[in-house]
Specification:
The protein contains 11 helices and 2 strands; from the N terminus they run ααααααββααααα. It is mostly helical. It has one domain. It has a two-stranded antiparallel sheet. α10 packs across α11. The N and C termini lie far apart (about 60 Å).
Length: about 250
């Protein structure tokens, strides 16, 4: 069996799992979380990893690296992810978004010196759509499924978990760049995430370590923000955790 065929079979199997996920009933308006007991265990594991490794590394990174350099690395990382958005927009039939993303990538990769600078924005080109395969599955009619928290990767849903797996294979740059250049994007992405963890440390710490129920808070923020993203910015349920103070879920 060829590599491409193995991937195709795996994707079909994963998509089937999403489509045939649990049908446990729930109260109207409540999150669909039939795996809550297991999810909470994973959540505690993720908090342990964050407290021991990610949080101190993020703060150290932001403390050492100048803000201007952090911004450049973030732009570079974002630019390298645009071809993946082009693929996903094409798969879900959003040719306008695919074309705009492609133009932005070309401009920033050439005039912007690989994406370290952002002339596309200065030229009033539309922002990148940040399309992923979870959005593609949504466009194809695949239901969201249950909420899950993945080890190390954090909050997700059954549909988005499949999307995260598929996105490992949907960036064309990973197939055209030689080694070791193909791993530059991964390194930039890790650096960008560490930068975000350091920059938003106070807000994230308040959610993870100061709220009465960090699992419920994390789940709520993820599901509402994801609904906003998948809905193309049209969801009235959108809630930005960087703008809204956390609330005590047990405060009646």
């Amino acid at each position: 069996m060829t590599r491409s065929l193995r991937i195709a079979v795996s994707l079909l199997g994963l998509a089937a799992l999403v489509a045939c996920g649990p049908t446990t009933t729930r109260e109207e308006g409540a999150p669909f979380d039939p795996f809550e007991q297991e999810n909470r265990k994973v959540h505690e594991f993720n908090k342990t990893v964050d407290r021991a490794l990610v949080r101190p590394a993020g703060k150290g990174y932001s403390g050492i690296v100048p803000d201007d350099i952090e911004t450049l690395v973030g732009r570079f990382s974002s630019n390298l992810s645009i071809p993946q958005s082009v693929v996903n927009n094409t798969l879900r039939g959003n040719m306008k978004g695919a074309t705009e993303d492609l133009y932005r990538f070309v401009v920033n990769s050439t005039i912007g010196l690989g994406g370290f600078f952002d002339p596309a924005t200065e030229l009033n080109m539309p922002a990148a759509t940040d399309a992923d395969f979870g959005m593609t599955l949504h466009a194809w009619g695949v239901p969201q499924g249950a909420y899950v928290e993945l080890p190390l990767l954090g909050p997700s849903t059954e549909r988005d978990a499949v999307g995260k797996f598929v996105d490992l294979f949907t960036n064309p740059l990973s197939y055209v760049l030689p080694s070791p250049e193909k791993y530059v994007g991964t390194a930039a992405s890790v650096s960008s995430r560490l930068s975000d963890r350091g920059r938003f440390a106070d807000t994230l710490d308040s959610i993870l370590y100061e709220s009465a129920d960090s699992y419920a808070q994390t789940r709520s923020f993820y599901l509402q923000n994801r609904a906003f993203e998948v809905g193309g910015g049209s969801s009235d349920a959108y809630l930005d955790p960087y703008d809204t103070p956390y609330e005590d879920p047990y405060d009646e």
